Amino acid sequence: MIFTGPRPRVPVPGTAFTDFVLERAEQYGDTVALVDVTGGVRYTYAELADAVRRAAAGLRARGFGRGDVLAMLSPNRPEYPIAFHAAALAGGAVVVLNPLDTADDLADRLDETGAKVLVTVEAEAEKAAGLLARTKLEEVVVFGEADGATPFAALLADRPVPAPDVDPAADVVAVLHSSGSTGYPKGVLLTHRNMVANVLQTSLVAPLAEGETVLAVPPFHHAFGLIMTLNASLLQGATLVTMERFDPEAYLRAIQEHRISRLYIVPTIAVLLAKSPLVDRYDLTSLRSAVSGGAALDPATAREVEARIGLRIGQGYGLTEGLVSFMQLPGAEPNGSVGPTTPNIECKIVDITTGAELGPNERGEVLVRGPHVMKGYLNAEEATRQVLEPDGFLHTGDLGYMDEQQELFLVDRIKELIKYKGQQVSPVELEAVLMSHPRVADAAVIGVPDEEASELPKGFVVVREPVTAEELMAFVAERVAPYKKVRRIEFVEQIPRTPVGKIERRTLKERERAAG
């Protein structure tokens, strides 16, 4: 059975992504499009559109064009969408990188995509210089100034030039990274059409009214931040207030001082709004709506937020390969679902053993199809075939069911990724690091529930020689990005494995639940 949801289909414009997002920029004119949380940097819509066109011309003058790749290594700031859309308008693609990743991880991403230009911030300039020496990068551009880097202002040509033609259905405009169902991160190829479709879909389901102000905290290098927070807001003429890093008190102060009306949050922030005594110190009455994403939101937490500050939280669900596919209205009563499909999206639930299609209230793997589904993985044809069916349905790796109202309820993750504060953490990667310790004989990693972080990576370890949990956690922390650290260690006699040697993570999770 294919579920289509109650939302009517809509035509997807056959246009380039930047043309679509900024099509009304001149109409919005003097409305502030982007402002730093400190108020120090701001762009109106007219200034944003002009800067994008001039930066695109500057890139083209440097030989950057269709088929080339620009890398973004930056926290959220007002200049981020200028660089992103300049590369897109010049005909290229953008690989969005996580500033928390290690230099080795970043070098791998840059090499596999063949990025020519890296745009970064002053704080990352030293790391960027090291990447320039070990990858195919030709130039590092920095917001501000740094030794050995080109100031971003130098890219702004005196006059725009005509943009090259692109094929919206075939040309890639963004590369994000996802671990998929297993293994190490892979580059997810998103075309202009994929991005146009999902910005349109999310804007129709969770629209912003005229004059709304959005607090842009979800990172722009994440699909949730890039699609809903950034580009859907720009399409609708909202004002985005950017924060480079999350701090509870600064976050609440920003809501008060900027009179924020729409929040895009992860469950960790919902817990803050529900429980922190800091909330009582600030005026949050400007808030009208919130959308949660990145990980499952406990309905009880959503109800606590509503009881405390009168704010209802809608919930969305998607994945990097399929972007935002389901959305509960921001004003809906929390019921544990992630809502029905967004427009133009089909869903089916299949038996995880036989692949047979299931009906309402039957649990199986969630598959989705629509114009938002990725083109495929970069340089990974076999991995693409494993998740993309010939008929266009994408395997999400998640277990769930659709009810009679065609709302999706997620039950578990087949794919075993750990969600730490909205970030994806691969158990396979952490197991490899643990296994590289000379005193470790075997290891397995799972996510264990945590109210603040959603999940914490926990390692189960079989040792060859005595070693402390603290030593092992420090060993891992030195070799991975901060959000990937193993937060707990338990020593065991044996790691449960199948006859072919695969770790039985479900057994470990059941053991964890039994232990309370």
Task: Report on the architecture of this protein.
The protein is an alpha/beta fold and 516 residues long. The chain has a domain at 418-514: 2-Layer Sandwich (GMP Synthetase, Chain A, domain 3). Helices cover 29% and strands 25% of the residues. It has 15 helices and 25 strands. The strands form 5 sheets. An 8-stranded mixed beta sheet has the order 2-1-11-10-12-13-14-15, with helices on both faces. The chain has an 8-stranded mixed beta sheet with strand order 7-6-5-3-4-8-9-18, with helices on both faces. The longest helix is centred in the N-terminal third of the chain and has 17 residues, at 45-61. The chain is globular and about 70 Å long. 51% of the residues are buried.
- Under CATH at level 1, the class of the domain at 418-514 stands as Alpha Beta
| Oligomeric description of these chains | single chain
Distance between the termini: 38 Å
What is the CATH architecture annotation of the domain at 418-514? 2-Layer Sandwich
Q: Give the CATH superfamily of the domain at 418-514.
A: ANL, C-terminal domain
Keywords: Ligase
Domain AMP-binding enzyme C-terminal: 429-502
Domain AMP-dependent synthetase/ligase: 23-378
GO molecular function, one term: ligase activity
